[in-house]
Structure formats: structure tokens, C-alpha cells
Amino acid sequence: MRLLPWLLVALLLASPVLSADVDEDVAVEEEEVEGPVTCEIEHAFGDGPFTKRGSLQLKSASSQFASLDQQLPESFGDQLYELAKADGLYRVRVRQASGANVLASVRACALYASGARDKLVVHVDSAGHVQSVNVVLPTQQCDVATMKKKQLQPKTSVVISRPSAGPEPFLEDYVKELERRQNPQRAAEENQSFLGKYWMYILPLVLYTLMSGGGQQAPAGGAAGGAAAAPARS
Fold first, then answer.
1. CA angle 71, 62, 164 (to 5 degrees)
2. Residues 36 and 43: beta-carbon distance below 8 Å
3. Res. 117: pLDDT tops 80
4. 150-165 in b/e burial notation, b at 16+ Cβ within 10 A?
5. Distance, CA of 108 to CA of 113 (rounded, Å)
6. Which candidate, 38, 135, 46, places its Cα nearest to that of 88?
7. Which of these, 18, 71, 105, 208, could form a disulfide with 91 (CB 3.0-4.6 Å)?
8. pTM to 2 decimal places
9. Number of C-beta neighbours around residue 187 at 10 A
10. Strands (E), 47-136
11. Residue 76 neighbours by CB under 8 Å, 6+ apart
12. Cα(75)–Cα(162) distance, integer angstroms
């Protein structure tokens, strides 16, 4: 019985499970260096040609901030008023360095009634590429018949809209469990790697349990017995 703990030690030392060589993959993330992203803003009155309205600059591809350098001509108010009286469309185009253009349009009378104050909502993807643009006005109410000419004070604000990250599905755990069921050998290797990492903690507990529970032997039968019975008298 006393040989059992030493036999267990010999078996554990001979087992390949005790190999403590564990391969660990170290993920190194490369930091992306992002520069400013510049787009040209153009506008057109009705079916007229597009001309430069200004330049839109994003501080970086992932930035939420942008600046607009607006260059409106002196005749902007007169042109917008004539287009509003004709109930035409004022068009905006965003030109990118990649050659992809996005368009938006609003009623000229609504823009004129808003005092030429608008908001450009620029929708971009994770790489900073413009996907679409919207022109938002403080009011959509306008009456072409009663519209009168007035002094405009154009003002444009810019809002950058990015896609929000939704909840990620727990696919990784499901795939791992599926691989374990389809590949029992791999599951056994994972169990061995666990024992290979923590055998130095498990082994002393096993030896202590065996030695404390199996180290004592029952006393011999003669020593445990009482005094011999006296012989019966005749």
C-alpha cells in the first residue's frame, strides 16, 4: 500500500501530459496613421451647371469633426431668389478624391425662407468615405406666391454621421463548441494542455490525499485481540 504514491509519481513523470511547453499567439495591433480627408462641395441652381461652393475637411478618417470653407458668390442671394420664385431645386454635390460623387437637393423656396441657413449631414463609412449627404433646413414651409426678396445671411453647419456598431453575435463560443464535438481528439488535446499547465498544483494535492488516507495499515489480528480465554476447568 505504501508503494502506491510512488508508483503514481512515476506514472505522472512518464506521461507527456506534464509537458509545460504551451504555444501562445501574441496579437500585435498596428496603429493606423490617418490623415485629413478633404472633399469638394459644389452646388447648382436648378438644371444649371455645378460650381464650387467650398471645401469640406475631416480631421481624420475616424474623426467626428469637420470644417467647411464656404465660398459663396456675391450673386448667391439673387440666384436663389429667382430659383425659389420658379419653385426649382437647389442641388448640392460632394466630390471625393476617389471620383465617387453623392448628391442631395432641396426646394429653393424652403432654403430661401430659412435665410440660406442649412445643415449638411454627411454620412461616412469606417474608412472616411462619404456614402451620402442630406441638406437639413430649419423650416420646410414656404409660399412661392407671397415670397419677397430679402437680405440673406448664409450659414452652414456640418454634422458627420458614422455607422454605429451593433451587438456582436456570440459565434466564437458556438464555433469552438461545435469543433470540440466534431473533433474529440482536439478536445482531448485541450484537456491535456490544461493539465500540462497546472500539474504542479494538482500533483501535491493528489499525493497528500493518497498518503493521508492510505498510509495507515490495520493492526495485526493477534495484537488487536483480547487476553486468551482461560481453559475450562473440568
1. 110
2. no
3. yes
4. eebeeebebebeeeee
5. 9
6. 46
7. 105
8. 0.56
9. 15
10. 51-58, 66-70, 89-95, 101-107, 117-124, 130-136
11. 116, 152, 154
12. 35
Query: Other C-beta atoms within 10 Å of 9: how many?
Result: 14
The DSSP symbol for 121 reads: E
Q: How many residues does the chain have?
A: 234
Helices (H), the chain: 3-14, 76-85, 108-113, 171-182, 184-214, 221-224
Who has greater pLDDT, 225 or 22? 225
Q: What is the Cα Rg of the chain in Å? A: 41
pLDDT band at residue 1 using 50, 70 and 90 as cut-offs: very low
Query: Cα-Cα-Cα-Cα dihedral of 202, 207, 212, 216, to 10°?
Result: 160
222 or 118, which is more confident: 118
User: What are the residues facing 194 on neighbouring strands?
Assistant: none
Q: Contact at 8 Å (CB) between 146 and 84?
A: no
Helix (H) / strand (E) element for 94: namely strand 89-95
Residue 46 DSSP SS3: coil
How far is residue 127 CA from its own chain's centroid?
Answer: 14
- Is the distance from CB of 85 to CB of 147 less than 8 angstroms? yes
Residues β-bridged to residue 66: 58
Query: H helices of 48-161, where?
Result: 76-85, 108-113
What is the distance, to the nearest Å, from the Cα of residue 133 to the centroid of all Cα atoms in its chain?
Answer: 24
- The whole-angstrom distance between residue 202's C-alpha and the CA centroid of its chain comes to 39
pLDDT (0 to 100) of residue 81: 95
